[in-house]
């Protein structure tokens, strides 16, 4: 029988954030020569055309994953946002206007779930990048 | 000159969450007879048709604000969601499919900013409800 505690842990947003920062710490400790990631093509499925700066190679992925970890740890909302252009495109795609009249409880849950989901994805990407580095330097896991 | 520390505080998501839970605590301490809020029309602008249960009167607002505070404090993602229907409608409105291929950094920032914004709105609503209760019982602020 699954305990309430186990369910709590699996579904906690705070735990998802902590899991992500731990994965990035491990990545940093493992990747001693990040420059080896340069020019290694990123096989991530996200839209690289829309985010030229960050995901053209594995080194870009590495920098992005660290940048997000810094935001998570500081808890700051990035204002001077180098991603502003992409966010504008995202906001246009999502047509945010209907949200303004939405029940705030549903809106709150939408963003909490969204954040949980994106943190889980980013944790997997971080672990995958760490493994790829191990492959590059020829160390078996 | 505005200090870096002041900017930090104003833009912190964690601070926005804490500010909200404090506002709800103060609301609970002030509203000793929540039943007085029954049948008092809610003048909130959100779409009450889409959220029949929670915002038909000020008492509904009171319960909703407390429920969200409980989720914030536990950090849990609500799975057995009485708002599931509304969230589905919200997700349909937002057409989430394009998000799947989106640069995860932009997606992360979208949800963090969204959460910050909704927490600020909910804090104002909580403070406003507390003031309305004071008016109802005839106590000047």
TrEMBL record, chains A, B:
Localisation: Cytoplasm; Nucleus
Sections of the chain in a coiled coil: none
GO cellular component: cytosol; nucleus
GO BP of this protein: regulation of lipid biosynthetic process
Keywords: Cytoplasm, Nucleus
Stored Pfam families: Spot_14
UniProt KW Cytoplasm keyword: yes
Lineage top rank: taxon: Eukaryota
InterPro entries: Lipogen_MT_Stabilize_sf (IPR053719), Spot_14 (IPR009786)
Family: Belongs to the SPOT14 family.
Protein name, entry field: Thyroid hormone responsive
Gene source species: Amphilophus citrinellus (Midas cichlid)
């Amino acid at each position: 029988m699954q305990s309430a505690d186990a369910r709590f842990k699996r579904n906690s947003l705070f735990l998802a954030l902590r899991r992500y920062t731990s994965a990035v710490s491990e990545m940093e400790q493992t990747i001693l020569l990040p420059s080896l990631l340069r020019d290694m093509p990123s096989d991530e499925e996200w839209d690289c055309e829309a985010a030229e700066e960050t995901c053209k190679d594995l080194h870009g992925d590495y920098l992005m994953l660290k940048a997000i970890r810094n935001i998570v740890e500081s808890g700051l909302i990035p204002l001077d946002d180098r991603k502003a252009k992409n966010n504008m495109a995202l906001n246009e795609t999502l047509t945010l206007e209907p949200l303004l009249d939405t029940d705030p409880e549903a809106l709150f849950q939408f963003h909490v779930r969204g954040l949980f989901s994106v943190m889980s994805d980013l944790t997997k990407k971080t672990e995958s990048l760490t493994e790829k580095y191990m492959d590059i330097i020829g160390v078996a896991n």
